[in-house]
Structure formats: structure tokens, C-alpha cells
Amino acid sequence: MTDTGFFYNQKPDKEGAKDFLSERFYNKDSEIFVAEVERLELSGFVQLYPLFSSFQMSKLWMLNDLFGHTEFRQKGISIGLIEKVKKLVINSNACGMFLETEKPNTAGNNLYPKTGFELNTVENYYSWYVNK
């Protein structure tokens, strides 16, 4: 979380998120995996988008969203979701996956190396956004 109290400086928008995720699901734009606990309660989800790498001449996945409900954190749910998406990467013959997270995201920055992700300290990452 940033100093605004919101992840990535974004205010919560449940309706917008519901619409966006529904559109991704129905258009098959992404892969979404969910985790449930015994009570059939949603405890987390992960969403990936397919990309292609001309350098690798292969499919590449971008892990864009990983969410674990605060009530179920420290129970291996995020690790289980990441292991599930690793199988997707392998089964889709992709060369790998990548993600980005904010530097202050202590939980994520501790989690990702534990699951085999390596921090890229060599390459520059640039972004350009409309209306930022």
C-alpha cells in the first residue's frame, strides 16, 4: 500500500472491478484461477494475460493480479495459486511469466522470491499511460 492507503494509488471500485473481470472472463482475454476454503468462501484469485515475446519467439504470461483475502493470509493460498499458474505456463508451452509490484509491497516482495520469481535488477522498466 502507498501513502494514500490504496494499492497502486487506486481507490476501490467494486462495481468497476466486477464489470472488468466479467468482461475478461466472457471474452476469454485472460486466465483466472480462484481459491476457496472449506466454507466455499473465495479466499483468493490470480489473473494472467497472454503476451508474446519476439525475442523468445514464444508465448509469455503476465501475472497481473494476485489477491489473497486478509482473513486467509499466511495459509499458503497465494503460493498455491502461483503453483497453479506455473502449470499453465508449462502446459501452454510459454517461455515464462513476469509480474510487477510496488517497492513498498512488503508481502509481495517477500512472497515472489519464495515461489521462484527473480527480481530483475538489470533491465530498465518504462511505462507510458494515457491521462496519467
Describe the 3D structure.
The chain has 132 residues and is an alpha+beta fold. The chain has one domain (13-114): Aminopeptidase (3-Layer(aba) Sandwich). Helix content is 29%, strand content 23%. The protein has helices spanning 14-27, 77-91, 106-114; strands at residues 31-36, 42-53, 58-68, 97-98. Strands 1-2-3-4 form a 4-stranded mixed beta sheet, with helices on one face. Strand 1 and strand 2 form a beta hairpin. The chain is globular, with a radius of gyration of 16 Å.
- Tell me the strand percentage band: 15-25%
Determine the number of helices (DSSP H or I, runs of at least 4 residues): 3
What is the spatial order of strands in the main beta sheet?
Answer: 1-2-3-4
Termini separation comes to 19 Å
Write the layout of secondary structure elements.
Elements: H1 14-27, E1 31-36, E2 42-53, E3 58-68, H2 77-91, E4 97-98, H3 106-114
Parallel strand pairs: 3-4
Antiparallel strand pairs: 1-2, 2-3
